[in-house]
Amino acid sequence: MKVERKCKIVSKEQMGDAIYMTLECGDMVRTSFKGPGQFVHIKCGEGLLLRRPISVCSCQEDEPEDLLSIVFEVRGEGTQWLANRPAGHTLDVMGLLGNGFSMNPDGRYLLVGGGIGIPPMRGCAQYTQGRSTAILGGRSKDKIILKDCFEDECAKVLVATDDGSLGYHGFVDALVRQELSEDKGYDAVLACGPKPMLRNVAKVAEEFGVPCQVSMEERMGCGIGACLVCVCDMKDGSRKHVCKNGPVFDSKEVDWDA
Amino acid sequence: MPEVDLSVNLAGMTMKNPVCVASGTFGFGREYNELFDLSELGGICAKGLTLHPREGNPGPRIAETPMGILNSVGLQNPGVDAFIATELPFLRQFDVKVIANISGNTPEEYGIMCEKLAGAGVDMIEVNISCPNVKAGGLAYGTRPELAAEVTEMAKAHAGSVPVMVKLSPNVTDITEIARAVEGAGADALSLINTIRGMRIDVNTRRPILKMNTGGLSGPAVLPVAVRMVWEVAQCVKVPILGMGGVAKGEDAAQMMLAGASAVAVGTALFADPFTPIKVREGLREIAEKQGLAAVRELTGGVRPWS
């Protein structure tokens, strides 16, 4: 059962260009957690009609209230409003929405996050309790956020930057290729990031015959699957909806040429 | 003080309260039913149906605008047969009136759909002649009185005893002309307004936000336009009106009713707050109580225009 809750901001922290916010969310995690990779839909002030969908970075059942953290960048008016909320204020949050990554807690996964797509992969790392490998990518080293957390929560962490300021000089798909050729033990590749990155990662996974799930982004309306605006074109010609059918899709089902 | 009577009658269909949800904003109710009991509503205008399934337009399909949104969904739906087979039985579990919304490419398609839906037992059929997001049919029927009348006649001829409500487009010079034409063709009720055509451009990429370039504007931004059109139409037809366009609170609904609507529909405001329809209902109740009305339907047509 998805819910709408008044959630108190417990803490807020600047992390490069991103903001890391932890919320008290009542029984939201207990009642609607389906797997890492879900999102929350947050009302950002009275002047804006549409809520802003933001991926969950990590969440846990807790007493007296469940906790969830989100990480976002200021992209416009809505996220600016959100960034300005101080700790102690409350937010109107719908969640947890969508389907997360389909994972086995005993599995071992290759997690790939690009830019602001890094934080949603953290829940996947925690879910597999240190067994997975993370590949984090970004334009430059200041975009590689949460690296310390991933190092604590993964067996191995690799970094790629477009400008070479940290780790491998290039894109994450090169590291995915390297990792999949050296290590045949991954159950799947799980990825979140910009669409061109997802397409390239999916291509490499397919070459190696490893299943791949991708978290997609689209302009969203209701957030629950009723208004049908957040479309994702599928290979079979159908148009699915990121909020309800996703945001995570099997990469082989997505029409990457759309 | 006795309870205010919230019930209203729309072309012979009695609803326990005047608050419906607008077609295209509520799917077939399954999603919102996870948040509240659908029986709280007066009626549900279900997602627009076509004779055959449609995948709709490419994305992006939505753009935010000042106090509104533009959409270009393009009637994505599973088709009328799938609605009858799987969605209608679901909706029938609730104490709520079910209004099927249909769009056709030809008058004949409207007739076929009406026959199927009347046979399946919906409470009302809303004939959409005003979708701005599809190439064939759609808006064309809604902007020419003779075509609007032809579609209405066809729907009426095949709907049996199920009342037919025609949904009007605001994208016309004179909405009363179309209203009179469809009333003359036998429409039992009118719903208005559909979305207003609009456009938003990203100044950096110089691309429209919507992949279809233009879309339909809805939300609080359109409320005054909708109230004005309901008022104009109410003065020139005798059939009841379902008022919609920007309704987000009780006061908005009261404006619609004072302008001449018998009932109202909430749409886009659902996206900001999924509980809006219930809040609108309670807001209407409060207004009626404060004004000492025995029934909320006493608001209908009660505007006192300056002479």
Name its key features.
heterodimer; A: 258 residues; alpha/beta; six-stranded antiparallel beta barrel; globular; B: 307 residues; TIM Barrel; eight-stranded parallel beta barrel; 16 strands
Task: Walk me through this protein's architecture.
The complex is a heterodimer of chains A (258) and B (307). Chain A is α/β, with parallel strands linked by helices and 258 residues long. Chain A has helices at residues 28-32, 77-84, 120-127, 147-153, 172-182, 195-207; strands at 3-15, 18-24, 39-42, 52-60, 67-73, 90-97, 109-114, 133-138, 156-161, 168-169, 188-192, 212-215, 231-233, 239-241, 248-250. In chain A, the strands form three sheets. A seven-stranded mixed β-sheet of chain A has the order 10-9-8-7-11-12-15, sandwiched between helices. In chain A, helix 6 (195-207) links the parallel strand 11 (188-192) and strand 12 (212-215). The longest helix of chain A has 13 residues, at 195-207. Chain A is globular, with a radius of gyration of 17 Å. The two termini of chain A are 33 Å apart. With 307 residues, chain B is an alpha/beta fold. Chain B has one domain (8-299): TIM Barrel. Chain B contains nine helices and 16 strands. Chain B has helices at residues 80-91, 107-120, 139-143, 145-158, 175-184, 223-234, 250-259, 269-272, 276-290, and strands at residues 8-10, 13-15, 19-21, 43-45, 62-65, 68-71, 97-102, 124-128, 164-167, 189-192, 196-199, 201-202, 207-208, 214-218, 241-244, 263-266. In chain B, the strands form four sheets. Chain B has an eight-stranded parallel β-barrel, surrounded by seven helices. In chain B, strands 5-6-14-11 form a four-stranded antiparallel β-sheet, with no helix packed on it.
